[in-house]
Amino acid sequence: MLAAVIGLVLAGALAILLLQPAPYLVNMVGQLAAFAILAVSLDLVWGYLGILSLGHGLFFAIGGYVCAMHLLSHAYAVTGVAPDLMQFMGWKTLPIYWSGLASAPYALVVALVLSAAIAFLFGYASFRSRVNGVYFSIISQALVYVAMLLMFRNDTGLGGNNGMTGFPLLFGYPIGAPGMVTGLAVATLLALALILVVTRALVVGRIGRRMLACRDDEARLRTLGYSTTRLKLWIWCLSATIAAIAGILYVPQVGIINPRVLSPDLSIEIAVWVAIGGMGRLGGAVIGAVAVNALKFWLSAAMPEVWPFILSGLVLVVVLGLPNGLLDLAALRLKPTWLRRGGRLG
Amino acid sequence: MVDVTRRHFIGTAAALAAPAIIRPAWAADTVKLGCLFSSSGTMANIEGRLNHVVRMAADGINAKGGVNGRRIEVVTSDPASDWPLYAQIGRQMLQQEKVAALFGCWTSVSRKSVLPVVEQNDGLLFYPLHFEGDENSKNVVYVNSPPASSVLPAVDYLMGAEGVGAKRFFMIGSDYVWPRTINKQLKAYWASKGVAATAWREEYVPLGFSNFQTLVNQIRSFAAEPGGQPIVVLTVVGSSIPDFLREFANQGIRATDVPILGLDMVEADLEGLDTAPLVGHLNCWAYLQAAKAEANTRFLADWAAYVKAKSVPFSADTVIDPMVSAYDSVQLWALAAAKAGSFDVPEVRKAFAGLSFADPSGYTLTMTGENNYVARGVFIGSVNEKQGFDILWQSPDASKPVPFSPYG
Amino acid sequence: MVESLKSWLCGAILLVAGLMQPAFGASPSFERAGFAVGLCGDGAAQSRVLDALIRSSGEVTAEDLAFAGILLGGLLERRLVCLGDTAVLLEKAGAPDGREVVSGGVRSTNGGRSPVLGLRQRGLVETALGISALIAGETVELRRKGLAAVERRMAGVPDAVLVRAQDNESDAGLKTAIGVAAQGAALSSPDPARRLAAIRAVAEALSGAAFSRLSALKSDPAYRADPAFRAALEAAIAKVERAVWIGNGLALLYNGLSFASILFMAAAGLAIIFGLMGVINLAQGEFIMVGAYAAYAVQEAFRRFAPGFLDLYLLAAIPVAFFAAAMVGIVIEALILRHLYRRPLMSLLATWAVSLFLINFVRVVFGSQNLQFAMPSYVSGGVPLYADFIVTWNRLFAIAFAAITLVLTLLILKRSPLGLDIRAVTQNRDMAACLGIRTRRVDRLAFGFGSGLAGLAGVALCPIYSVNPGMGATFIVDSFMVVVLGGVGTVIGTLVAALGIGGANVLIEPFYGAVAAKVIVLVGIILFLQRRPEGLFAVRRRR
Cβ of A322 under 8 Å from any chain C Cβ? Predict the structure, then answer.
């Protein structure tokens, strides 16, 4: 199943390169792929470790914000035109924490390390005192909410409510050019495929088995002498890093980052994508993210009134009738593997 | 399994392509206009009205035979108050629906989000809100006023003998670009008039903030300090406005003690409030419902009839400035397209120079072609007990807009 | 205040019709027709006649002042219509005809306009109305209100007015009060004795404004030169300062309490639902919204069937809102949540979907604008209690409401059979089931009860916040923090957490602003919960 998803992702990338569809379609596919990466990152901790984070938007936002800072300072360095943000804040130069971000590799490292570090701190504190289940969900939601309030503050210095927009260049080339749009979408699709391959290798291996054990009965695993805290912490940090990658790839494609990605609602929506696609399976996360967002893009333009009703109906149907998400529709043809059993617990 | 997945993907692809198949874009006898106003989410209450106004304006033009022999078809959407979605839908409308112009955005952030999209696709966005200025894109028509042409006259009025001779200022705003830019410009303006920096205080609250008890307490103690007549410059937006006003009135402050100049306050914000204790507070816009003009009478009647005919879920007798500005936008576009004899954006843009239109405010809007700003009049309104505004003062004519503020 | 003056003046209109004969006792300085024409003029003309009236109000006859008061009351209420060279006073705003102000003859209002008042003119009108009521008011009550209005705008009132009012006053208490006010006006008098009296009189006011006035005297030469003056001033300042300080402390306490009561109301139902079933009910905010909309429905019903009792709708809405929200809750429990008890994280998503549905359903049915509530007098305005501390009725309503909710909830939980069942199931579901408690039924009733409490919160919030489909969304994160901090399943814990969070927010806000206050408090809670996940008060339970 996953192989098919990966195959389709790669086929999509190839199709974009060969067929050259309209740029807005390409751009949409690229965004969908970024959302899929985000969904995979959540599925890794929710589906395989039983930790439902309602704050994954935080890591997505860290990637996005660092990427946006890179884009702005890069454009500033190349063109010398001060970004709106500087003018509005009354800055003569970019503040100290922006220094170096004009370099893409450095910005990438900052984004990944920062998200992993914050995930580590939060995870360490939570897992050590055995905060789990719905408590973890609520506290992580509060965390992303706090981050949102902070970023909404203008004095935080990252654009406040307006966030950052108007990125002219990426790697020195105009960001809106069709070639760049195609390149970004293909890169995101490839990143998605790569992440799927890596995470799959992880979950089918020894660590994956330990993750499932931890999800199903943490106390027993601990009694058996495994350090569940360390296991959870590692996977949690990995998941946060993947979410940050999604954010990095998302921002140049939509051209804006603003605290709304930190709203608790978006973080819940990520969980909704995973649940709809089928949690506990990486392919399910991808399908869920793509299906829900494609539907959203289409309906909010074509039938704006009905979209919220369809989404809520979809969630209820899945939650009540299809505990393994859309993949249940094909359940009859599915081999009874550990993966399948895995999806039953929520 | 594989089958299901593939079918799913094919299904999705088909779904995405569907609108293009069902509705052939660029049909011979119609021209499309796109709306980017949310009908759900935090902006729904105020933005939602504008979708209907654009439709109404288009209906009016169609009834007179359309533009260049084509009927206008309005494509609405719901960006759901989600800023990236404005950009996404805008892109979709320009590239797929091939709309001739976009009408949309309320908040600055949504405009900033759509801006790169219209610039990359050389589209045209009509933006109906007054805003922070300091922006001048050839792809955006700024139908409403930047602060230098709307806010400063109102502040001048309050500082003058005719107003209250204001000496001290309590600025309270939502924490984002528009209030902060306005306040920055106001401070520079006051400084240029010799007002000392101790005479003002600045506070910001998060968007959607509602618990104003402590802030109103602070305003009361600010008012009690010596130094002359205080006023409140209110730049909070959305649902914070009625919540602030309610607390202000409940703590017993009257307009004659400390007047509020509510820069984003419109008739719709007073819906659901008892305005008797709020009578006398001020706002300033390029249009007020009480404007005395034949065009206004007509507009109000049209809107009431439209609400009734289409059972629009908004009040039939509340009309706010951005609604009129959205209406003006459609008219300006139609005039320009007719003058150009074309729907191509560069042609239409060229036709902006020298355009004029007598809008419901009673002023004649003009565009110079130097920039995409529109000259508007200024009204200062005073809250009355019927949840509306009486016109206290209005500018003698539509002043030339100043995109970049000389202050701050 | 001014409203009641106006309504009196409106009532006295017939009486004064007699006075409207070409003025018998009219003083030469006041000319009725000219006054009316002035009011009909532009801002400058209005200011001119109002200034003239106020300046000469020590001498103008009481009849003329009453006449001016009636005109000004009409002006404020838009009952004064200007017709070319004369003005007409209507019985009701918008009436087709009224009485010509000077002659009393009936005139049609055709082609007339009612003047709009500028802010400066509005201030003058309030001053003049106050003076008119203070001197020409028929009853003590009216004159007392006139004094209050005059004191508010003391700077623009000539001394002669207070002297005249004091001389004419028959009521002893009011006479003294006017005397105190008159003394206070003499702060800059050259006579040292009068100045000392003035300082003492001003210090009676115990307000921030009085503090500013007194503090300004420190730069007066007499402060250095005259020890008596200095001592009196310092004593007065210390007195006012202490009072203002206490008043501000009370205000802080009140703000904290009112915010805490809102938090508590929003969280109480959640605490029961979460404590009992472990369900994260993300639709709790929407139950609040349902309660508020139920209150609106009750208001509309009163409007239609019993308009005379409209003021009582808010009280009548209490049971309606409770049962409306409870019914919605029970339906949702029966249709959806019942199937999800073993999967708490899925029930979280399901309630999220429910909340999305409810918001949009209400939006489609009622529209997205704020609902129009006619606020009864018992929830609008406020009363100054001490120094600058004002008790606002709507907040007091919410506090009282929260207190009653707390008591009722405790009674039901501790004293009723349902409460016993709820507590039993909360502590040990399996054991309770073994003992024959129908746990599923308890779940449903408890869910209904919790939802009903949210509905009550909706009623309490109507007078404070705007009511629209999205109103509930703002409460979710806050109320979950309250529940988790308090400890799951304890109402007292929820109360303590609400008080703590509300208090902390209000304490921090004046120093660092509203956003930082929220951030600091939330970060504090997150850190606390990392150390102590079970919250402040943990119920012993088996999981």
Answer: no
